[in-house]
Amino acid sequence: GSAAAVVAVLIFSMTPTVLAHAGLSTTDMGVTACIAAALYASLRLVEEPNVKTSAWFALAMALMVLSKFSALVYFPAAIALAFAAWYWIARPQLSAVISKASRCVPWLAPSAVLAFLIVWAGYRFSWGKNPYLPFPAPFPELFAGIQAVGGHNTEGHLSYLFGDLRMTGWWYFFPVLLAVKLPLAMLALIVIGLRKFPKLRSHGWIFPIVIAMPLGMLAVAMAARINIGLRHILPIFPFLAIIAAAGAVWLAEASRKQSWAVWTLAAVLAWLCGTSIAAHPDYLPYFNALAGDHPERIVVDSDLDWGQDIKRLGERLKELNAPPVAFTPTITISLAAVGFPAEHARSVPDGPAPGWNAVQMTQWKLYRLGLQMNDPTAKTWPDLIQPTERIGKSILLYYIPPEAEQGR
């Protein structure tokens, strides 16, 4: 219904992780929008196969393919689990499945042609060697990208969780991040929304597939060896918002009989909005209370420190009229342009430089000031020295008196 839709948009728009990545020039929010559009267009094509739904399906699928390579595995997984959920709920006869498929199949061929042309146009009608074929073909860059991502996943990626470093990741990486990065109010509404699960047969097949689609994508992410950040499963967030909205609707319906439900609903929505407002403008390093006061003990990188406080550090160094500072940024940036002293040195793992030192959480925890996975039991100096102050949520600033350094 429309009320649930409005609440779902409110919840999605008030989620700090969504607000953080919506403001960044990456592919994460683009693929989130395009996967949601493609899955919705798929449902519309199944419900009413015609020229209009076929054309929208083709456009949505093409934009999804162009948005990010991960869509090519997320979408099939979501569709497969959605079909399984529908089959489990509807329990159709085989003849009914064949009949529905026969109505849709004739529209898939023109959709595939149109989607192919749109994707090709997105690659500016390129033509060349395809890594999977022995002859030239359209948009070879797409297949080269797929090959590169496959190789990246095979090799793994340096990742950090609970103080541990790995190249192959952890199956529970994303569930942990969902638990500590989603607002508690949203988690509560999701739990309430899932209360409907035992009664799904009386609610039709739409709600179970709304649950199945994000589970399919989450299963793919949990099996991958690239554990960089929650942004990699951002496409499940629209569906989490819908499930949370179902919880809000359940409370609204319960309020007709029990007065506590309406007050609970008002409190939870106010809590969610208040959480988002309080997080401004630091949406990217937002963690809920479950993470405690030191979320860097859980995770870093794009979930806590993606270089967003470097400008703040430059302003603070200006205020301090700091002489040369030792600092190694984790992103490519002109330090002079954001107020750094003309002279600065790189940080080293064995000890701070005399005077001012600044350390990003990601540089400390993930890259270990250059050590990375070498000598994993060795501590770096930020493990042993208390910072002078914290800049924003992600940078530690130290002052080491020259005489102290000489004594050391």
Summarize the structure in short.
The protein is of the alpha/beta class and 408 residues long.
Question: Which structural class should the secondary elements be placed in?
Answer: alpha/beta
- Which series of helices and strands comes N to C? HHHHHHEEHEEHHHHHHEEEHEEH
Relative strand content: 5-15%
How many β-strand stretches? 9
- Rg calculated over all Cα atoms: 25 Å
Explain how this protein is built.
- The mean pLDDT is 92.
- A hairpin with a 2-residue loop joins strand 3 and strand 4 (164-166).
- The chain is an alpha/beta fold and 408 residues long.
- Strands 6-5-7-9-8 form a 5-stranded mixed sheet.
- The protein has 15 helices and 9 strands.
Topology (elements, then pairings):
Elements: H1 2-13, H2 16-22, H3 28-47, H4 51-67, H5 71-90, H6 94-122, E1 127-129, E2 136-138, H7 140-155, E3 159-161, E4 164-166, H8 173-181, H9 184-194, H10 206-223, H11 237-254, H12 259-279, H13 310-320, E5 325-326, E6 344-345, E7 355-360, H14 361-365, E8 389-391, E9 395-400, H15 402-407
Parallel strand pairs: 5-6, 5-7
Antiparallel strand pairs: 1-2, 3-4, 7-9, 8-9
Helix pairs in contact: 1-11, 3-4, 3-5, 4-6, 5-10, 9-11, 9-12, 10-11, 11-12
